[in-house]
Amino acid sequence: MSTFTATLGTDRARRLRATLTTLLAAGVALGAPFYFAPFQVFQLTMVLLYAVALAGLNLLVGFGGQISLGHGAFFAAGAYTAAVMLDRYETGHLATLPVAAVGCFLLGLGFGVPALRLRGLYLALVTLAFAVFLPPLLKRLEPVTGGSMGLTVDKLQVPAWSGLAEDQWTYFVVLAVTAVALLLARNLLRSRVGRALLAVRDNESAAEVMGVRLSLHKTLAFAWSALFAGVSGCVYTWVIGFVSPDSFSFVLSITLLAGLVVGGLASLYGPLLGAAFVMYVPSVAQDISDAAPGVVFGLLIIAVMFVAPTGLAGLAGRLRGVAAGRLTRTTAPAADDPPPDPEASASPAPADPAPVDAEPVDAEPVGAQPRKEEE
Length: 375
Prior knowledge:
Transmembrane segments: 41-61, 68-86, 92-113, 120-138, 169-189, 220-241, 247-265, 295-316
Membrane topology: Multi-pass membrane protein
CATH architecture: Orthogonal Bundle
Radius of gyration: 34 Å
Region (Disordered): 329-375
Largest sheet: 2 strands, antiparallel
GO molecular function: branched-chain amino acid transmembrane transporter activity
Oligomer: single chain
Subcellular location: Cell membrane
Helix content: 55-70%
CATH class: Mainly Alpha
Strand order of the largest sheet: 1-2
C-alpha cells in the first residue's frame, strides 16, 4: 500500500511539474513579442518554424530509427508549394497550408518505398541524393518556380482589428501553427502508430513477430516526417516572402539533422532546443570568426556533444538526477552509525566475576559424600 501511495504521489508530482512548465512556457511565449525588438522577434519566429521541421525529423530518426539526410528537400517542396499558389493563383496564405501538408505527405509516402529495402548508410545516401538533385531541378522548372531568380510573394497581412505590428502578428500565427504541430506529434507518438515506431526502432524482428507491419509503418514514418517538413516550409514562405533554389541546398538537410541531434533525439523538447541551436549558433559563429564561421560552428557542435552526449534535452534530466542524488545522500542517515540494538540495551549487565585468589567458603570437592552432622 505504501509503494502504491508513493508511486501515485510521484505521478502527481510529475504531472504538476509538467503543467507548471507548460504554463510558464506559454506565458513566456505569449509575452515575448512585446518585450523584444523586431529583429529578435523575427529570430524567435524562425526558431518556431524550424521546430516544426525538427519535430517531423524526430519522428523519423529519433522514434523511427531511420536516417534521413534529405529533410531539406521536403522543406523546399512545402515552401515552393505555398509560393507557387500565392504567386500564380493568388490564393490566401492559410489556403496554402493544407495543400502543402497533403502534397508533402504523399511525396513522403512515395519516397518511403526505398526505406523498405534500405537501411543505415544506404538509406542516408538515397535521401541525400534527393536533397542534392532537387535545387537544380527547381532551376530547370523556370516557368513554374522562377528558375534561379526564385519567387517573391506577399507576406502575412496584419488585420486592422489586431492592433499588432507585422512582426508580432507573424510571430503569433507561427506560434499557433507550431503549437498545433507539436501537439499532433505528441499525440501521434502516444497512439498505436507511435508505439509501432518504437517497436520497429528497438527490434524489427520482435516487432514483426508481435504483428507490426514493418513496410506500412516505415513508409508512414517518412510520410509524417515529410508532412511536418512541408508545413514548416510553407510557414517559411509566409515569413520570408521569397524562395529560391539556393536557399534549400543539401546543407540545410545536414544542418537540420545536426540540430536534432544536438537538441536531443527521441525527446519532445529536443526539436525546440535544436531549432534554437540552428538559428542562433551560426550567428554566434559568424561573430566569433568572419573568415571561417563553419569551423567555429563545427567546433561548437563538438563541444556541445562532449558536454551533453544525449543532447540538450537530456542534459537537463542528468542535472536534475545529480541534484536529486546529492539531496538523497545528504538527508539519509550515515551508514557508519548503525541503530542501537534494543535487545542488547534491555538485557541486564553481567555480574562481576569472583576474584581468582578467593577461596569458596565450605566448599566441597566435586563427587564427595555429604558430611553428616555431629551429634
